[in-house]
Amino acid sequence: AIYTVPAGYTAYMMKGTATCQAGADATGDMFIRYYGQSSFRVGHSFEVAGTGGQYLYEFASPIPIPGKSDIDIRTSVRSNNARITAAFDIILVETGV
Length: 97
Known about the structure:
Elements: E1 2-4, E2 9-20, E3 25-33, E4 41-49, E5 55-66, E6 70-77, E7 84-94
Antiparallel strand pairs: 1-6, 2-5, 2-7, 3-4, 3-6
């Protein structure tokens, strides 16, 4: 899952979710590269197991992410060729340019 917040908007991340193929497990990180910075920062880390069901995390307070910033979910599976899916819910609020 990867997304760039449009210019003139602020994204508020509400929750993230991930699933893994049955019999597999994985670790993952949500990285954010804030506009104007050259490197990504870890915003959230998680583990997901195919036998344990869906990973779902609702942030107690939405994470504000300014326009032109990048969100990137990266995972490492411990099983060979296992599939994993990831997604996140954001609310976009227009802030002007």
